[in-house]
Amino acid sequence: MNDRILHLHNCEAVALAAVPVLDFAVWREALINDIAEGAHLSSLFVYKNETQNFLCTIISIPQSRQLGISSCAIGDSYPALTPECPSAHWFEREIFEKNKIRPEGHPWLKPIRFLPDAENTDHPQIGVTDFFSMHGEEVHEVAVGPVHAGVIEPGHFRFQCHGETVYHLEISLGYQHRGVERAMLGGPHMRSLHYVETLAGDTSAAHTSAYCAIVEALSGSEVPRQAQLIRAIACELERMANHIGDLGGLATDVGFLPTANYCGRIRGDVLNLSALICGNRFGRNLIIPGGVRYAIETERRDVIKSRLGAIEKDLINAVPLMFETPSVITRFDGTGRLSAETAREIGLVGVAARACGLENDVRKDLPYGLYAAEAPEIVFYHNGDCYARGYVRWLEILSSIAYIRRCLEYCDNKEEYFTVCGNVAPEHIAVALTEGWRGEICHVAISDESGNFNLYKITDPSFHNWFGLALALRGQQISDFPLCNKSFSLSYCGHDL
Amino acid sequence: MIRILGSRLLQKHRTIEYPDGPVPQLSDRYIGRPHIVGHCLQGCTSCRDVCPVNAISLENDDVNLDMGRCLFCGVCAANCDSGVLSFSHNHRLAAARREDLIINRASPVRAEALNLLAQKLFHRSLKLRQVSAGGCNACEMDSNVLTTPAWDMGRFGIQFVASPRHADGLLITGPVSENMRLALEKTYDALLEPRVVIACGSCAVNGGPYADHPEANNGAAAIVPVDLYIPGCPPHPLTILDGLLRFIGIETP
To answer: Residue B132 and residue A152: Cβ atoms within 8 Å?
Structure first.
């Protein structure tokens, strides 16, 4: 493996020149083998210098707790990886759409974001594509979105149905595309932090942690321990708030009003804890390159501790109730099932993967920040159905509460919580993975000779998981779609960027 | 069933008294309405220089802060050496006219009812269709939270509905990504008159962090006429609720 791939740790930067540039056939074979041996494809993208395009891969190797980078020079097209490596599916479609490099033989080569193109009036119109369709008697097609019935982001879902049964769901996104990766170029600049805070606005803490790790790695800056502590608290609070919201959402989707209502309220209590730390319910304006903007002094720490205790009590009363009510179990159990094998094949990450029994979590596999010193308890379940995806969230909430409690004991506002970052090293590449509440986040940055980004690649966990939702609907009842969708609870804007 | 009843007793009644009771207490670090006093040091441009979205303009040593552009990050105030610019805990930010979002030393704190038509027609029932046009999900979540028991805006007859055909107006979030332009236009066209539009959050008011992006449209007003602007990134649920209540003519403390 050694000269075909450059190993580095999570949140590390290396000289760009150190990245191996292989012959295409060697690169392709090595990647397929590494994935077959258990590595996970965290990112696959095209990097352009003045003369040449390169295909680059970032893989996670849990067995050695390392990342691997490699690349090859590429022309206008190449033999697609997807037929042998299904987890490359969505990445190759992105490459075709963004860089116009064609993966020959890709079984599903359609746009994923429908990038607006003012110059080319012939470009694909959003939502207009060759949806796979079924024909026959009593077969019907259901189209949902972009605007959905609830208060939720837009996306398009096309179901091929026979009676109530869904044979195929195709998900077509891109409605939320705002041009984040393009706007990150030339950074770090004044808006960089705001882009990463809002690219997936419910995951501000985890995405911003990844961005800051990138800048810190590229500038060789060491973040004070107190800042790592506060970052970890912010990320775990974010995990808790979103999981509580989702459990409430799952309850709503099966009409179980008690838990739906309690969770709707309790989520706000957790957001208010984030606001107590930094003034913002979504943890914004807190995490910055070099550390954090606010410390947690003793009185504040004590208030957080006491409120956390009250939240825990409310949750223990509100949530297990749902998992033990027969009418709920009957809706959750066996619905939207994904096998562990399929999950592994398509590169599923996060809660959805752990619900299938896959033991993937960046906090354990590639520890970063405070997690390198002490990790929370990582939880798994089995079955890969809606019950499992819900139950993993409950277990993670309990794990986060315990972890936050331990962290709070070390809060000390007399310790340093911020350091000034040096300059970004020129012609380096940095990779940062964090475990957002949905799953694995991957940021990759490459700096030019002036220390400005000439590549900033962001992969939200939803990028890996939307396809998992599409597969989970096969053979299910269409009326279970809201429940399945909520059990994955993916980000539209995090995907569209 | 006994367990369910038991849980109901333990969870208690949690709806806040507001607006009949006091404003709920916000975090001491909450960044609310900008507070501008006195004149700046001559030639100082510290606040304007650090604003990522050009929300600040300086005229004759007077600071003008456009809350519609503002992301409420607080960095400008942190950089103000003369104590002229700071942020208060005042959550009241909504305005009916775009120009009323621009704050300077002399700006009054507005608390008036915001829309006579809405007050007349929708005072006891305002049904809104939410459209996320490139929103990051924070404004969406903090609008949706108003339907949960602690806030319960259903008390005032304000509800989110499933179709524009059932709605009196739109609550728009996001800078209006180009890919959502047509969907937003169609949703607006499907509303029957009289109809209103509320732009919620910095993105919907002025593009937010995505201002001047070719992939987006600098907010809802570029596509549809807007009747209420609610600044913030995201606006606190209290800010949104205060805006909505004043919009339909309910007095707020």
So the answer is: yes
